[in-house]
Design goal:
The complex is a heterodimer of chains A (about 350) and B (about 600). Chain A is built from twelve helices and 13 strands. Chain A has about 350 residues and is of the alpha/beta class. Chain B is α/β, with parallel strands linked by helices. Chain B is built from 23 helices and 24 strands. Chain B starts with a helix and ends in a 7-residue tail after the last strand. Classes of the chains: A alpha/beta (about 350), B alpha/beta (about 600). The complex binds flavin-adenine dinucleotide, thiamine diphosphate, iron/sulfur cluster (3 copies) and magnesium ion (MG).
Chain lengths: ~350, ~600
């Protein structure tokens, strides 16, 4: 199956961002995924988010593992840095890259198989270390690339395309991320860009480990009746707790709300995350309450979406380690190899 | 594919009423017709993309026949048409320049093989009705072509000895070779109308008294306007009406012209006059226009060709006087003006106050307009005329106030062009046929419409859906020195097949429609994400003006419709702005359920004889 590449022509009235780019300039190669795959919509949402935030594509590093979802970085931001790693190993490659050069914006793209099965350990440690990144799991409940076996996020009792019932309990990556100390946690749906694009924008602006679980129907293997990751099921059971609006520093606030209707969470760089409450009592800055809410609603069969938790004054791995601010590739030989005397000093400290 | 086919998609959507635009009725032929910008703009509604695809496939004769049925004179029009289709072409909105539609039409005519066995034959059985066609220009010839095969006995009258009208007498041979006229007029004469040529019709009453069941008046707008300023009479021998002069050149009565020529006027007739003068010995030929250069009526390409033949065009000059000495013209005096606009945007020419300009010359050609004239139609036989001397004609049926008398071409509503004359001819032929069959000519037969899926495989379509990024190609021209040396050497050489193929590939196939089936749509957004032009939006419905403002890309071109579906499962609707769709089919390629399909919309206007 080959698709025609998208023609270079674009709408004559296409808006441009502060860099003079249109959203078309953020595209990548033509997708080879199945027609209708939710993952392609997430790619489109990432494109839109980067466009709206005026991010220069070469400031982004896209990292992924293996799977249909992990293939998608090829299909967006064609001029960004990219590393398609080994199955389940994206988090450690990302961590290493981030430690070496903290000037880039790290975008990890993974699947539910890639992160919740083979890569679960990597996922957990990367989150708990607070690596400054956006970690997106494109969650379809199956191993799409290997033809639709249940993944570890498939709900107990959900049915495969052939009618087989899944006997195992699911891993809820949002719950895990909350437990492990992620400082920005959201869930969304590939079929709802109005919700998804702001969530990605907020994550890109957040310092620390930002995790997004995006339900992304696999049209080929997991979009039938009996699946809990189908377009219809997700639409029917979607319980959005809030709507996010990103207010960049020095940008005027346009929409006005009644007091009590919104929660504003400032970020380290002056960005304000403005949350319109859809669920009156939901407080996204209270980690424990968020977990309670999540468990309660999951027990009722609801899929809780929105910005579920955010820490206003978050820190990251570099803060904890006290590493040098300059990327290693810009340090000179003298700084990188301070010589025998410096080594002797380090060794002495361990005696 | 089969796996996807198992998706549970039947019967989706909701019928809960939502305020906003009603679902688009794609069963109305006008809806998709309007999307085919060129065909919609063509007065004869030629299925343009259909013949362009045939040209791309090298099927020139087939392409020619598609044209022939619609516009009767593909070879003539492929060189001379006013091409209203080109400014309408979508390519200009999404790239830069329209497809060279007109010159592709010529390619079909130039490279076809013998098509004579595809033409209708003269009717073997006559139906007993006799129809008089006055004037043998494109309008009458079209009526003849449409009625003769049906068994009507058509009698073609013209004062000239050869049929063709102004195509023959006005348009210079360096734009339109004689053989092309002979060939295409010949196809119609081959249907065996009765010819009464070389004799002017002097009385419509006499014609009606001859017992014709219907009379079609296609006498054109033959009267060139004169310029009554001081010196006109004294210099009469050196001041010619442009149209009369061109006809005289065409008939071979005029073979040369003096060296210094001034042409007055800024329309196409002026352009033909000045270029003809250059070929007959005019060395210093100047065109003087009253208004601004930018407002000249002549087609841009005619102006370009005149300029490239070293003919200066001077604007904002109002002719005041013909200067003469002893019966000889010595020049023209002009007042210099400029254009001013009032608050309503109305234009007026005001003197600049500079001294008058005198252009020295030996001859003046006056090409400042033309009009219809009907001295041969009696005013008391039931054919009503309006204040301007034009007949009162129904714009749909082309019938005059006299039940047996029809008008078309330049005679009906004043001077236009060949393709309009052809379109009038088709409609008048339908009316004459309906009336003589005892039917109401206001009840027009509908066009024939076919909608055919182009799907051949998963990503395979019956048309070439890849969008060419090539720029418009220029038609090769004869070198200027050779062009100016001859009155009949055709200036434009036409595309060769390879150039034609590239140009044909630029066509976006706007007739291959995006057809949406909401019952199949699972609202996955794949089409929205892939569409290179941001045409598609899924959103809540709303009033059109408001909806246009909140689509994925604003839909500001109000000439182009929005395609709106009935409500989907989520209660939203699909809205597609037709304006800049490339008809690339990517939406349909990406749709997992086949909710989008690419379907070829072929519309053929009704012809006389249709039931
Ligand atoms: C110089 C010039 C250049 C042009 N160039 C173009 C061009 O490039 N492209 C284009 O599309 N259009 C062009 N036109 C316009 C085009 O020629 C006309 O719009 C078109 O020919 C009109 O067709 P018709 O059938 O209405 O009448 P015409 O073509 O005018 O034919 C009318 C015929 O009726 C005959 N006739 C008139 N009165 C009588 C009578 N009483 N008895 C018998 N016969 C009579 C005339 O002799 C003539 O043959 C041009 C016009 C001029 C003047
Ligand atoms: C080490 C290793 N083990 C197993 C595989 C086979 N494999 C390829 S993709 C995949 C699962 C991908 O699932 P997921 O991450 O959910 O991606 P999806 O295709 O569903 O988007 C597996 C098991 C592999 N490529 N490498
Ligand atoms: S197999 Fe499923 S996950 Fe993979 S591309 Fe196809 S629809 Fe997407
Ligand atoms: S054919 Fe479909 S994908 Fe292509 S431009 Fe038109 S709407 Fe967009
Ligand atoms: S691709 Fe478009 S038309 Fe097809 S199912 Fe998805 S949203 Fe509907
Ligand atoms: Mg998966």
């Amino acid at each position: 199956m080959t698709y025609l590449p998208k023609p270079k022509l674009h709408h004559p009235a296409l808006p441009k961002n502060a860099l003079g780019l249109t959203h078309r300039d953020y595209e990548g190669a033509i997708s080879t995924l199945c027609a209708g795959c939710g993952h392609d919509s997430i790619s489109a949402a990432i494109i839109q988010a980067c466009f709206e935030l005026d991010i220069e594509p070469h400031r982004i590093a896209k990292l992924s593992g293996i799977g249909c979802s992990s293939k998608t970085p090829t299909y967006f931001l064609g001029t960004a840095h990219g590393f398609n790693s080994v199955h389940g190993r994206m988090p450690s490659v990302l961590t290493g890259a981030n430690l070496a050069n903290r000037d880039l914006i790290y975008l990890g793209v993974s699947g539910d198989g890639d992160s919740a099965s083979i890569g679960l350990g990597q996922f957990a440690h990367c989150i708990r270390r607070g690596v400054d990144m956006v970690y997106i799991v494109e969650n379809n409940g199956v191993y799409g690339l290997t033809k639709g076996q249940f993944s570890a996020t498939a709900d107990k009792g959900s049915k495969s395309k052939k009618g087989v019932v899944n006997p195992d309990s699911p891993i809820d990556l949002v719950a895990l991320a909350l437990l492990l100390g992620a400082t920005y946690v959201g869930r969304s749906f590939s079929g709802d860009k109005a919700q998804l694009v702001p969530l990605i924008k907020g994550a890109l602006r957040h310092k620390g480990a930002a995790f997004l679980d995006v339900i992304s129907p696999c049209v080929t293997f997991n979009n039938h009746k009996g699946s809990t990751k189908s377009f219809d099921f997700v639409r029917e059971h979607n319980d959005a707790v809030n709507r996010l609006d990103i207010i960049l520093p020095q940008k005027p606030i346009t929409a006005e709300y009644e007091p009590g209707e919104v929660i504003e969470v400032p970020q380290h760089d002056g960005t304000i995350l403005r949350l319109l409450k859809l669920e009156a009592d939901y407080d996204p800055t209270d980690r424990v309450a968020a977990m309670d809410y999540l468990f309660e609603h999951r027990a009722r069969g609801e899929i809780v979406t929105g910005l579920l938790y955010v820490e206003p004054h978050s820190t990251d791995l570099h803060d904890e380690l006290g590493t040098v601010a300059t990327p290693l590739n810009r340090l000179g030989e003298a700084e990188l190899c301070p010589g025998a005397a410096a080594l002797a000093k380090v060794n002495a400290a361990h005696r | 594919m089969s796996e996807i086919g198992e998706l549970d998609v039947a019967g989706r959507g909701t019928d809960a009423p939502v305020a906003g635009m009603p679902p688009t009725d794609i069963a109305d032929p006008a809806y998709f017709h309007k999307v085919v910008d060129c065909q919609w703009a063509c007065p004869a509604h030629t299925p343009v993309p259909e013949y362009i695809r045939l040209i791309a496939a090298g099927r020139y004769a087939d392409a020619y026949m598609v044209n022939w049925w619609s516009n009767v004179f593909p070879g003539i029009l492929g060189r001379t048409c006013d091409r209203p289709c080109e400014p309408a072409c979508r390519r200009a909105r999404v790239e830069r320049e329209p497809v060279a539609i007109c010159r592709l039409k010529r390619v079909a005519a130039d490279y076809k093989d013998d098509i004579r066995d595809r033409l209708p034959r003269p009717a073997t059985a006559k139906n007993g009705f006799r129809v008089a066609l006055v004037g043998a220009g494109p309008a009458s010839l079209t009526v003849a072509r449409d009625l003769l095969p049906l068994g009507y006995h058509c009698v073609l009258f013209d004062q000239d000895v050869r049929a063709g009208g102004m195509i023959r007498t006005q348009i210079p041979r360096f734009r339109l070779p004689e053989e092309v006229i002979d060939e295409e007029v010949g196809y119609i004469l081959g249907l065996e109308p009765e010819l009464r040529l070389g004799r002017r019709v002097e009385s419509l009453k006499a014609l009606l008294d001859e017992g014709f069941d219907a009379v079609f008046v296609g006498t054109g707008a033959p009267k060139g306007r004169d310029l009554e300023v001081p010196g006109r009479r004294e210099a009469a021998a050196h001041v010619h009406i442009g149209m009369e002069w061109l006809a005289a050149v065409s008939f071979g009565h005029v073979k040369s012209i003096a060296e210094r020529v001034v042409v007055l006027g800024g329309g196409n007739t002026a352009m033909d006059c000045c270029r003809t003068a250059r070929r007959l010995g005019g060395k210093e030929v100047t065109v003087a226009v009253r208004s601004a250069f930018a407002e000249m009526k002549a087609s841009p390409w005619e102006i370009e060709d005149a300029l490239s033949e070293d003919i200066p065009i001077l604007d904002h000059l109002v002719p005041l006087e013909f200067l003469h000495e002893g019966g000889k013209l010595t020049g023209v005096r002009f007042r210099k003006v400029r254009t001013e606009r009032d608050a309503q945007g109305r234009r007026s020419l005001v003197p600049t106050g500079e001294p008058d300009l005198v252009i020295r010359c030996d001859v003046v050609l006056v090409a400042i307009g033309q009009e219809a004239a009907f001295p041969w139609i009696e005013r008391d036989i039931g054919v009503a005329f309006d204040r301007h001397g034009l007949p009162v004609v129904d714009p749909v049926t082309f019938r005059s106030t006299h039940p047996k008398v029809f008008f078309g071409g330049d005679a009906a509503f004043g001077p236009k062009n060949i393709i309009t004359a052809v379109a009038h001819g088709h409609e008048a032929a339908i009316s004459i046929d309906l009336v003589l069959r005892g039917l109401d000519p206001l009840r027009r037969p509908p066009p024939e419409v076919r909608l055919t899926s182009q799907k051949m495989g998963l990503h395979e379509w019956a048309y070439d859906n890849e969008v060419s990024l090539e720029a418009r190609r220029r038609v090769p021209h004869l070198p200027r020195s050779r062009a100016l040396a001859s009155l009949s050497a055709e200036v434009e050489l036409g595309f060769n097949p390879e150039q034609a193929w590239h140009e044909a590939e630029r066509c976006l196939n706007c007739d291959v429609q995006t057809v949406f089936t909401r019952e199949l749509c699972i609202e996955c957004d794949a089409c929205v994400d892939i569409c290179p032009m941001d045409c598609i939006t899924f959103t809540v419905n709303g009033p059109e003006a408001e909806l246009r403002g909140r689509l994925k890309a604003p839909a500001r071109n109000l000439d182009q419709p929005l395609y709106v579906s009935a409500p989907l499962a989520t209660g939203r609707v699909m809205v597609k702005d037709e304006d800049v769709c490339l008809h690339c089919g990517l939406c349909a390629e990406r749709c997992p359920t086949g909710a989008w399909d690419m379907q070829k919309f072929l519309l053929e206007t009704a012809r006389a004889g249709c039931r």
